Amino acid sequence: MSTVNRRSFLQTLKALSAGTLLSSFSQPAWSRNLQNALESAQSKTPDQLASDEDFWYFIQQSYTVSPYLINLNNGGVAPSPKPVQDAMKRYFDMCNEAPSHFMWRILDQGREPLRKNLARIAGCSAEEIAIQRNASEALETIIFGLPLKAGDEVVLAKQDYPNVMNAWKQRELRDGIKLVWLNLQLPSEDTDYLVNAYAKAFTAKTKVVQLTHVINWNGQIMPVRAIADAAHQKGIDVIVDGAHSFAHFQYTIPDLGADYYGTSLHKWLSACIGVGVLYVKKEKIKKLFPLFAPPDPTLDDIRKFEHLGTRPFFIEQAVGKAIEFYEMIGAQRKEQRLLYLKNYWMEKVKDIPYIKLGTSMKPGFGCGIGLVTLDQPGIKPVDLEVFLWNNYKIHTTNVDYENIRGVRITPNVYTTTKQLDILVEGIHEHAKYRTKFPTGPLDQK
Ligand SMILES: Cc1ncc(COP(=O)(O)O)c(C=O)c1O
């Protein structure tokens, strides 16, 4: 470099603040673009932003999702954005330098800050949050830990999650408790019907009601608070399965009226796979027995539920980054976008002959999850799932369970409306094809 060039280079360098220099050289393009998109989003309301494809395109670029398929089964488990994946990999590498040192002495120092961060987004005290491996573990800890005796009644629904139902059946078998099953007619936009279905089942022997906040089969939002209030009036404990609602739409756990609550963080929070949360209301902690015994199971310390043995702390600690990512998007913006995406595709298919929607489009009764089926004799929900995969490489899952039938569609914040247009085309073509050839092969349109 000549003397003149060197001087002008140094002058330019001086003009740039250290911060600008750092960010412009070290920030990858996707992250710079995202930062710009977030800055220009500040002037928009969450409602306006919900349909702003440019903004959500930059959110998509924070993920490493495959461009070769369209993943519309984010309800099963969601991918993590890059900063979360990177944190997990960094912590994993660190653990492998000397696992017992870095995992138990270094990384584990992040446990209490993580508990506080989780409590902040859950709207409760950190003293009510235990870190688990998934919703099943959290909910089974509650189900097996409650002091119930033979003859005590538990009200639950056939539309609850299978692991939860199985845990209750096992308790029935071992302890002689009585399970009182509801068979809900869904979807429903009738709060009175949903609340009364539970309230009518409560008797003097009912000790617990098991509730699912968002029914996984079709995305129905349940009026959990009203049912919890009815239960509490009779001294009944309330368990809420929040696997599909946490970080999907806004609420606090205490708002739900839950005494006990469990969720996974690898669904809507987009944390790494294998982490969840157990919430126990402060005054209920003492009497709930942990599934994995601590030295004193009768303590009223929430940490007694974390004696899980050796486990991947690098996954737990990366949750902090998932919380940052969630808060960076903004809870309200995320909720509005997910609702927008659900209504976007549902509006476009709802009038196709024989297409039946299995999820409410009314706010308060439905969220980002939608169920759709071709309502023709002899046509199974799996037909549409296979058709979408074979012809469009759209990944979904089908439901054919009790009175709920259809293909479940769960977009995420990285889903674009272009992708949903392909889904809409697929549903159109399936309806046309299947009405003409009810038994034809599913790899042809
Ligand atoms: C309603 C509901 N509860 C609980 C679970 C269990 O979640 P996990 O498999 O992460 O334990 C799921 C999983 O899909 C679910 O949909």
Description:
It is built from 18 helices and 13 strands. By secondary structure, the protein is of the alpha/beta class. Helix 12 links the parallel strand 5 (about 205-210) and strand 6 (about 235-240). The radius of gyration is 24 Å and the shape is globular. The termini are far apart. The structure holds pyridoxal-5'-phosphate. Pyridoxal-5'-phosphate binds next to helix 9.
Q: Return Rg in Å.
A: 24 Å
CATH superfamily of the largest domain: Type I PLP-dependent aspartate aminotransferase-like (Major domain)
**Number of discrete domains:** 2
Mean pLDDT: 93
Ranges where pLDDT stays below 50 over 5 or more residues in a row are: 6-22
CATH architecture annotation of the largest domain: 3-Layer(aba) Sandwich
- Kindly state the number of beta strands: 13
Read across the widest sheet, the strand sequence of neighbours is 2-8-7-6-5-3-4
Beta content: 5-15%
CATH-defined topology of the largest domain: Aspartate Aminotransferase, domain 2
The number of distinct helices, counting runs of at least 4 residues, comes to 18
What is the C-level CATH assignment of the largest domain?
Alpha Beta
N- to C-terminal distance:
64 Å
Bound molecules: pyridoxal-5'-phosphate
Sheet with the most strands, sense and barrel status: 7 strands, mixed
SSE class: alpha/beta
Helix content: 40-55%
Task: Give the overall shape, derived from the CA principal axes.
Answer: globular
